[in-house]
Design a protein that fits this description.
By secondary structure, the protein is an alpha/beta fold. The protein has helices spanning 19-34, 45-54, 57-61, 87-107, 131-138, 150-157, 159-164, 206-217, 230-240, 253-262, 283-289, 309-322, 349-355, 364-368, 382-391, 404-414, 427-440, 442-460, 466-481; strands spanning 10-14, 38-44, 67-72, 121-124, 142-144, 223-226, 247-249, 296-300, 325-329, 356-359, 373-378, 395-397, 418-420. It contains 19 helices and 13 strands. It binds uridine-5'-diphosphate (UDP). Uridine-5'-diphosphate binds next to helix 1, helix 14 and helix 15. This is Glycosyltransferase.
Length: 483
Amino acid sequence: MGNNKVKSPHVLIFPLPLQGPVNCMLKLAELLAINGLHVTFLNTDYIQNCLLKHTHVQSRFENYPGFRFETIPDGLHQHHPRTADKFVDITNGIEEVMRPLFIEMLTNGNLSSKSTKPVSFIISDGFYSFAADLAKDAGIPLVYFPTISPCAQWAFFCLPRLIDLAEVPFKEEDYDRKVSGVPGAENFLRQRDLPSYFRNTDLNHPIIQCILKEIQQIPRSQGLILNSSELIDGPMISQISTLCPNIYNIGPLHSLHKSILLSTQKASSHINSSNSLWEDDKSCMTWLDAQPQKSVIYISIGSLAVMTVDQLKELWHGIVNSGKRFLWALRPGSIAGEDDKYAIPPELSEATKERGCIVSWVFQEEVLAHPAIGLFLTHSGWNSTLESLVEGVPMICWPYFVDQQVNSRLVQEVWRVGIDLKDSCDRVTFEKAVREIMEDKKDEFESSASKIAKLAHQSVADQGGSARYNFNRLVEDIREMTQ
Ligand code: UDP
């Protein structure tokens, strides 16, 4: 042993316990494992159970001898809804339960230098600001991976400046005022387009405090992974690089993942495997096969957002009144106060039967890639946005929280691939937006969507793609930093 021991890097990946970050980081984990690195993926018990129940992650990752899952409790009751309206419970659980257990695991437990396979590199969600001190004390290199959009991350970094300029918190009468405190975004960001928590009048709100901590810690790490590319988000990425010079732009990550898997014999059979926390409904793919090209609106508000019964009705009426076909992934628990039941408004039931397909959860990447999809009505989560950009599908954006208010503005004003309906919810507006994208300005939207899709594909190309280059650089740097 001793001097002859060849150090093989052991990367700990620690995502936020939510569908989007877990999906994203599992893809990164698989790419690192394909490159021969040892990887420990730290999930909460809840997330791990959902994955084991609804996906093939177990058998899929058994292909990589250096890969293992570890779990940690999230401090919430098993039946806690873990939805956006209860986000503070999730963050309290992180602070009070996960944080101390994680510290123990890394200092004395089965990830520590006292264990048989100590962790030698950490990739952590940007939200875990405590990881920076811990990694420093343990002498382990750390790279942060905030899985939100670069523009929203940049707005987070600008929060102290926005507070100084009195642009945060802001009042409703200022919603349409342009923001000057986010350099590089002065032309398109209004106050209502800032991250949702910036609307809060209480700067002591726990999430605001978390963001202020996070932005101090991220620049102390060895690097920052972003799920985007210079071709899509160049100006925002260069702003962030003034604070964090070592950025790995590996996005769109789901597309990079797909293209690397396709070229890897051992892994190519996993290409159609999802990382869903709910059961993917496959019957909707057969339904889609029977629909004409670009004729269907796909509707989903992601894994966390909730809506009221009134909002549900407005949306439903708007979609039905547009006369278009629709596939709706209506997640269990996404209607506030309604448990898993929702009533089809009787006046809509015939049209819904005729033109609609309603399921609980779909394998979204596969749905968006289907030729029948012509429009995505989305809550503008960053993963959903990227998945739509890659497939060249125009969007109607109806943002709920965190970075979604920012993303929906980018979709409309910067990439011009959709309509931002933030802060409104009425049937007439929904119908009008559908008609504008699928009828009146169809060619315009399709052409800008296909332009952005080309840039996304260029970013992950195996020859000259920036995501490929940055991913390879990340692997080399991990090897170098752990020697
Ligand atoms: N998703 C899915 N099926 C659905 C709805 C969502 O597979 O029916 C996936 C989607 O592909 C994306 C993730 O769930 O990767 C949601 O992440 P996003 O960042 O868009 O939003 P969040 O759920 O975090 O608000």
